[in-house]
């Protein structure tokens, strides 16, 4: 009697378990899949950049010599504002463009910004890029980006100019407006972001670039002192050789998926 009761209970338990499993399987099959993330995506970033390499080689410097001007001679880094704009194709892939404006922290030096001169420099980077996100549905999503583009460097330099005369040295004025540009061959970015819901994320990034200034344009304006008539003469900047360099940029960024 007892054995029959146990066998009956076992049969009932097996049938109940099978029914529950069937219901769970049916529910899983009919449950909607998690939607892939896609849509317009915008990122805004701030950071700091440092560089190594050359602004130009074999050019006439303000110390009166022909030689090289290095990034380490001219700048103490730069403050960065950046933006990415593009389309999130799915959870893992983003395709778009990047843009960056940097306020260069100019360093006084005898080659491009002597003591007593007023110098300002800014840099613009633009180009296409692609990103791959490793864990888009996790709370923290590591990602890597690859791009290339063009770099524009603008500098303004103004200061006193000593002009020797038979009556002694007089002081005129020197103004240089310089524009350098060239290709950015590679821009590699690694980063991570904490996801706050489906539409906003925030986290750090590290960007490394290799580029070259290949074109230089601009003018030099010399203004004579009043004793010599106060006239101004403007001429084109002289030729220089290309300036290869690299940048490292460390910052934080917020990302909005629309």
TrEMBL record:
Residues 34-207 form the Outer membrane protein beta-barrel domain. Keywords: Signal. The keyword Signal applies. It comes from the Bacteria. Residues 1-22 form the signal peptide. This is Outer membrane beta-barrel protein. It comes from Pyxidicoccus parkwayensis.
